[in-house]
C-alpha cells in the first residue's frame, strides 16, 4: 500500500477546541424515513448541540424562522420527502447559515455549519446554530473563537477519527477528491484545516453525481474547485452515501510530524495529529477556489510514485489489470463500438489510459465508447479520437494538465467537433437535474477560455449527456403533478383532469440555458437515452439556444 508523502513539521496552533465529527442520524424519530441511520458510536447533531447549550464558546438554538427558510428551500421528491444529496449549487446552501457570515455568531460557527450541511446532505434539513455572544478580554464581541471542543465534536458526530490528508498542497485536496470518487456519488467529507498563522476552519466536500464539489456553508461558497488552498495542514473524515465513515485508503499514513504509522489501517486521528485546530474561527484566507482540474493526474492517482495502483471502493488497493484483463477490456470496448471500431484512430491510447483503472471506473469510461459509436453512425466518413486527455496542454507556468473534452470527431472536410461525455445517474424528474451535467462540460470550457486561443478547447464544443426521464404522478398540497415519457410536465387539479399548467421539461431546459453564466462557451448540448437514442438536442447560434432535435 502507498504511504502518503511525509510532511514537514508544522507548529501546533493554540487549541481552543477540535472539530465536530458526528454521523448524520435522526435525533427524534420524526425525520424523513429515507434518511440513513447513524453508525454505531456516532452521536446526533442534537446531542452535540446539547453539550454546547451554554456560554462561553457554546451554541444558541437556531431561530425557527431560519429553519423554515431552509425547509422551504431544500429540494423535495414528489412525495415531499427532502431529497438526499441535493444539488449544492442551489439556493438551499445559501440559507443554511441563515443570516450569513456577517451576522453575530455566524462567523465562528463553522464546525456546526459543517455538521448541519451533512445533516441536510443526507436528507435531514438542519439550519446551522449561531455561537453564543461571547466577549474578548477588552469587552468587544468575540467573532473568531470557535465552539469548545470543536475538533472532538466532529469525531463524535461522525463516529470516526480524522484522517490526515497532508500539508503538501495541492495533494491534500487531490487525495480527498480521489477518496470521494472511489466512494461514489453521494459520499461526503468533513474537512478541517489549520492556517499558517494559527487557528483553523471547517468545511465540506461531496461527490455530487460524479463531480467533486467543495462547500463552505459558513460563507456560502460552493465550487467545483478546492477552497481554502492556503491552508497549512488538512485533515478530513470521509463518509459514504449513507453517512457512514469510510476507511482510509492508505495503510501507512504520515503524521504532520513526519512520523509514519505502520500499523495496517491505522489512521492519523487527534492523538497523532498535533495540528488539531480550533475549527470554527473565521476563515483566515481570501484565496479564490483553486481552479486546477482535480480530474487530472493528481486526483486520479494520489501517489505519483505508484501510478499503476488504484484504490477500490472498499478502501483496499487494486493492482493494475494483468494482460488477460487488458485483452478482455479491449474486447469489451470493441464490442461497444461494433463495426465503427475501425474508425477510432487511437483506441490503443484510450485503452492505455482507461484500461489500467479499477473495474467500476472502466465501466463508467465505456460510456465514451457508446457515444463514439453513436457519433460515427450519424457521421459517415468521419473518424474519431478518444484519448484527448493524454494530449491536454499544460496550465501556464505549471505542470498541471488543463481540463480536456473526451472525444474529437473529425469530419471529412477536416473540421473537428470536441465532445464531452457525462451521465446523469438518477432518473430526471425536474429541470434542475440537468444542471450539473451541463456544468460538467461548461466548467472545462470556461477554464480553458481564460487563456489565449492556443489553449482554448477548439469549437464547436458539444456536451453529450446520457440520461433517462423518470416519469411520475404525485399529489401534494391539493395539486397533482405528472411527468410523462415525452417530457410533458403537467399540473392538474385534484380531479386529475383539469389542467392548471403544462410545459415540456426539454423546452424548459432550452429556456433556462441562456440564464447559465458563460453558456455561450458551449455550442451543442445533446440528451441521449441509452435505450432509445437522442431525446433532445440544443444548438447555440445567432438567435441563442434553439432545440434542433
Overall description:
The structure is a single chain. With 549 residues, this protein is an alpha+beta fold. It folds into two domains: 36-134 and 143-300, no CATH class; 392-547, no CATH class. The protein is built from eleven helices and 22 strands. The strands form five sheets. Strands 12-13-14-15-20-21-22 form a seven-stranded mixed β-sheet, sandwiched between helices. Strands 2-7-3-4-5-6 form a six-stranded antiparallel β-sheet, with helices on both faces. Strand 20 and strand 21 form a beta hairpin. Helix 7 (323-337) packs parallel to helix 9 (359-378). The model is unreliable at 1-33, 251-277 and 281-320 (pLDDT under 50). Residues 14-24, 250-260 have a biased composition (Polar residues). Residues 108-220 form the Tox-PL domain. Residues 1-87, 124-149, 245-341 are annotated as: Disordered. Pfam families: Gln_amidase.
The chain-level structural class is: alpha+beta
Helix count, DSSP H or I runs of 4 or more residues: 11
The radius of gyration computed from the alpha-carbon positions, rounded to a whole number of angstroms, is 24 Å
Terminal residue distance: 50 Å
Described by the principal axes of the CA atoms, the overall outline is globular
The number of strands is: 22
Strand content: 15-25%
Biggest sheet architecture: 7 strands, mixed
- Helix share of residues? 10-25%
Query: What is the number of domains?
Result: 2
Average pLDDT confidence is 78
Strand order of the largest sheet: 12-13-14-15-20-21-22
Pfam families: Gln_amidase
InterPro entries: Tox-PL_dom
Organism: Streptomyces tabacisoli
Biased composition (Polar residues): 14-24, 250-260
Amino acid at each position: 500500500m502507498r504511504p502518503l508523502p511525509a510532511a514537514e513539521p508544522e507548529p501546533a496552533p493554540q487549541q481552543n477546541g477540535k472539530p465536530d465529527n458526528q454521523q448524520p442520524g435522526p435525533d427524534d424519530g420524526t425525520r424523513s424515513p429515507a434518511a440513513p441511520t447513524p453508525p454505531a458510536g456516532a452521536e446526533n447533531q442534537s446531542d452535540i448541540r446539547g453539550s454546547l447549550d451554554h456560554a462561553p464558546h457554546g451554541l444558541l438554538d437556531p431561530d425557527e424562522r431560519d429553519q423554515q427558510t431552509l425547509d422551504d428551500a431544500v429540494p423535495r421528491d414528489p412525495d415531499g420527502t427532502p431529497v438526499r444529496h441535493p444539488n449544492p449549487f442551489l439556493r438551499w446552501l445559501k440559507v443554511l447559515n441563515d443570516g450569513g457570515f456577517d451576522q453575530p455568531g455566524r462567523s465562528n460557527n463553522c464546525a456546526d455549519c459543517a455538521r448541519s450541511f451533512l445533516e441536510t446532505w443526507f436528507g435531514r434539513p438542519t439550519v446551522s446554530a449561531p455561537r453564543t455572544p461571547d466577549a474578548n478580554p477588552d469587552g468587544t464581541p468575540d467573532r473568531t473563537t470557535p465552539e469548545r471542543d470543536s475538533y472532538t465534536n466532529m469525531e463524535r458526530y461522525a463516529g470516526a477519527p480524522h484522517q490526515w490528508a497532508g500539508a503538501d498542497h495541492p495533494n491534500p485536496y487531490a487525495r480527498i477528491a480521489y477518496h470521494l470518487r472511489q466512494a461514489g456519488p453521494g459520499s461526503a467529507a468533513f474537512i478541517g484545516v489549520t492556517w499558517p498563522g494559527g487557528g483553523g476552519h471547517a468545511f465540506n466536500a461531496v461527490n455530487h453525481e460524479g463531480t467533486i464539489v467543495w462547500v463552505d456553508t459558513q460563507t456560502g461558497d460552493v465550487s467545483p474547485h478546492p477552497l481554502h488552498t492556503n491552508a497549512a495542514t488538512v485533515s478530513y473524515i470521509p463518509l459514504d452515501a449513507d453517512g457512514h465513515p469510510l476507511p482510509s485508503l492508505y495503510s501507512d499514513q504520515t503524521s504532520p510530524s513526519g512520523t509514519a504509522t505502520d500499523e495496517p489501517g491505522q489512521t492519523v486521528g487527534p492523538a497523532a495529529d498535533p495540528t488539531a485546530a480550533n475549527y470554527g474561527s473565521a476563515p483566515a484566507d481570501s484565496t479564490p477556489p483553486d481552479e486546477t482540474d482535480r480530474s487530472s493526474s493528481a486526483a486520479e492517482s494520489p501517489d505519483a510514485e505508484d501510478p499503476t495502483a488504484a484504490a477500490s471502493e472498499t478502501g483496499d488497493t487494486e493492482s493494475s489489470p494483468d494482460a488477460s484483463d487488458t485483452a478482455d477490456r479491449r474486447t469489451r470496448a470493441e464490442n461497444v463500438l461494433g463495426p465503427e471500431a475501425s474508425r477510432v484512430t487511437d483506441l490503443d491510447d484510450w485503452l492505455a489510459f482507461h484500461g489500467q483503472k479499477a473495474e467500476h471506473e472502466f465501466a463508467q469510461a465505456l460510456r465514451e465508447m457508446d457515444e463514439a459509436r453513436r457519433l460515427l453512425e450519424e457521421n459517415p466518413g468521419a473518424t474519431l479520437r478518444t484519448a484527448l486527455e493524454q494530449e491536454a496542454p499544460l496550465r501556464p507556468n505549471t505542470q498541471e494538465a488543463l481540463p480536456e473534452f473526451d472525444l474529437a470527431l473529425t469530419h471529412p472536410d477536416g473540421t473537428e467537433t470536441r465532445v464531452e461525455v457525462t451521465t446523469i445517474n438518477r432518473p430526471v424528474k425536474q429541470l434542475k437535474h440537468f444542471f450539473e451535467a451541463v456544468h460538467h462540460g461548461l466548467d472545462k470550457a470556461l477554464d480553458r477560455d481564460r487563456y489565449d486561443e492556443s489553449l482554448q478547447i477548439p469549437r464547436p464544443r458539444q456536451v453529450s449527456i446520457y440520461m433517462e426521464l423518470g416519469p411520475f404522478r404525485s399529489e401534494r398540497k391539493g395539486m397533482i403533478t405528472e411527468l410523462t415519457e415525452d417530457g410533458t410536465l403537467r399540473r392538474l387539479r385534484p380531479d386529475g383532469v383539469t389542467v392548471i399548467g403544462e410545459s415540456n421539461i426539454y423546452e424548459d431546459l432550452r429556456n433556462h440555458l441562456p440564464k447559465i453564466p458563460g453558456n455561450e462557451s458551449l455550442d451543442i448540448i445533446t440528451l441521449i437515452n441509452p435505450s432509445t437514442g437522442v431525446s433532445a438536442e440544443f444548438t447555440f447560434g445567432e438567435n441563442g439556444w434553439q432545440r434542433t432535435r
